[in-house]
Amino acid sequence: MSGKLMPNVELSPLQQQHYSTLELLTVHPEQLKFVGTLQEILCNVSSSVHPNVVTFEGEVVGFFLIDTHYSDDYNFCQGAALGLRAFFIGQAHQGKGFGKAATAALKPFLNQHYLNARQIYLTVNCKNPSAYACYVAAGFEDTSELYHGGAAGPQHILRLALM
User: Fold this and answer.
1) Cβ(123)–Cβ(88) under 8 Å?
2) How many domains does the chain have?
3) In this protein, which residues make up the domain named N-acetyltransferase (predicted)?
4) pTM of model > 0.85
5) What is d(CA 3, CA 48) in angstroms, rounded to the nearest whole number?
């Protein structure tokens, strides 16, 4: 990592006060194939898929879902591991270190909010090397397997040990 300091972001479950700035989050048009629109993402929220935000100085700069039943839908997910879905930093906030800071803060956040979780999985599109590098820099390991069920093509399967 370079000598630049990462911004001090906070990860937290989505709360009512976040909605006004959450609605302003968009991604670059070329990133839509990887993450979808916020409206599409929010349709996945359920009792087992929890919405979370990335904030900086009180402003929502990113969003992600934690899927507590990820292994029910993805056979590459071992045991009762969590799944990280729809992680993105808003277009207006990209290139400022928020993605790196948020992925670095993910493990402590999960250890605090999901006490029994031992690991978390995610898939990242093979055509998205910036996201892949960000996850690996945060400690995710590539399982050397590909998931072929994504709408935008093959995806690397990554996992992070928790605790």
Assistant:
1) no
2) 1
3) 9-163
4) yes
5) 39
